[in-house]
Amino acid sequence: MRVGVPRETRDGERRVALTPNTVKRLVESGHEVRVEAGAGKKAYFPDSKYVEAGARVVRAASSLWGEADILVKVNPPGPRRSVHEIELLREGAVLVGLLNPLGDPLVIQRLADRMITAFSMEMIPRVSRAQSMDALSSQAAVAGYRAVLLGASTLGKFFPMLTTAAGTMRPARVFILGAGVAGLQAIATARRLGAVVEAFDIRPAVKEEVESLGATFVKVELEEETEGTGGYAREVSEAAKDREREVLAERIAAADVVITTAQVQGKRAPLLVTEGMVASMSRGSVIVDLAAEQGGNCELTVPGKELVRGGVTIAGPLNLPSSMPTHASQMYSKNASSLLEYIVREGELHLDFEDDIIDGCCVSHEGVVRHERIREAIAQEKSRKA
Ligand code: NAD
Fold it and tell me: Among the atoms of ligand 1, which is closest to the Cα of residue 270?
């Protein structure tokens, strides 16, 4: 099949969907791969590496998009000069990417109208058979790592304990809220830097993982079911969130750095750090809110901005994976190519909708938006715009 890899056009995006190593494997297994000139440049994969891998580097976006059987992207298609990228795809083509189907559902409607078979990498179920395709997890691991580095570089203190001739510096105290993929990576990174780390998650099942990374698990009795389906959490009641905030307030006041990653798939991020809690923190402390894009775990977070309130820095970084583009691309490329290998068998598209992986992540096929949740989001978006 003819696989296309375009240059990402979204502002600030430095990742590329397929790296030369992956392209080489695809070419060896019989695919023709075309890569748009400069697609990997910002992730430090020059065109020459794609040529060595057996790809054809093309300059005209129209031939790349219009002639691809399968187009692999990082971000959803968007405007490109005077056209929308969806219009460049040929009818019946396949599109794979982080398509943000619940955040921007009208794009999925547009793909369906154009008869594109679209796979949303965010919708890959968290089952062990799909681990190698789980792009949300690979990119969240990058974000968790970078969040700690951001916190460490903003804090006016060392992370590790330091005994020097100039005195002993106490280790930084880091509190991590939400111990999913990003949270666990944040714990591991903060521990490697020598901080004293505490963490909390509503799913008690993660206690052991938190402890095995050398952090202390903060206990809050919530008395309700917190495990949802597909490896995700279930949204808890407002009463439970109140109870949680009560216990967490003390831990937050004592922390030098708070990293928040709490999220329930498809919902607004739970509000866990109030303005009052920020006021209780020492001057110079830092909050890094990874859930900024979903509304933020901290009441004061402004997505994409860093602000200072009462001496406390509150950062709401967006797209941290793009700030580490080489490894983020390498991991995404592995995820996307695993999905390609799964849906293409002997050179043909092989779609078994009884399969939970294909059923889960295929969002548009034969002119139909395939998931009720996305159809509802489309209806809401249309009525909001009407
Ligand atoms: P995840 O689903 O693996 O983890 C989220 C965790 O939050 C889960 O363990 C869940 O149990 C926990 N949680 C839910 N409600 C909670 C509550 N009320 N209190 C405490 N914990 C609660 O998600 P992830 O892949 O680790 O991603 C975490 C967040 O980071 C998401 O908001 C994601 O969008 C974001 N993210 C941000 C960037 C960025 O660049 N800013 C990049 C990747 C991911």
Answer: 18
- For the chain, residues with pLDDT lower than 70 are 226, 229-232
Bridge partners of 71, per DSSP, are: 4, 95
Distance CA 235, CA 58 (A): 46
**CB atoms inside a 10 Å sphere around CB 52:** 12
- Give pTM, 2 decimals: 0.94
Per residue in 62-96, pLDDT tens?
Answer: 889 999 999 999 999 999 888 999 999 999 999 99
Task: Name the token pair of 108.
Answer: 């999925």
DSSP state of 297: S
For tokens 């109030």, what's the residue? 274
The partner residues of 21 in beta bridges, in order of sequence, read none
Crossing angle, helix 325-343 and helix 135-154, to 10 degrees? 170
The burial of 95, by beta-carbon neighbours within 10 Å (0-12 exposed, 13-18 middle, 19 or more buried), is given as buried
Q: What was the pLDDT predicted at 231? A: 61
Distance CA 121, CA 9 (A): 18
pLDDT score at 267: 84
What distance in angstroms lies between residue 182's CA and the mean position of ligand 1's atoms?
A: 7
Side chain identity at residue 383, one-letter code: S
Residue 239's pLDDT is what? 79
Residue 30 has, within 13 A of its CA and on its CB side, a CA count of 8
If you measure from the C-alpha of residue 61 to the centroid of ligand 1, how many angstroms do you get, rounded to a whole number? 35
Distance 233 CA to ligand 1 centre (A): 9
Nearest CA to ligand 1 atom 22: 262
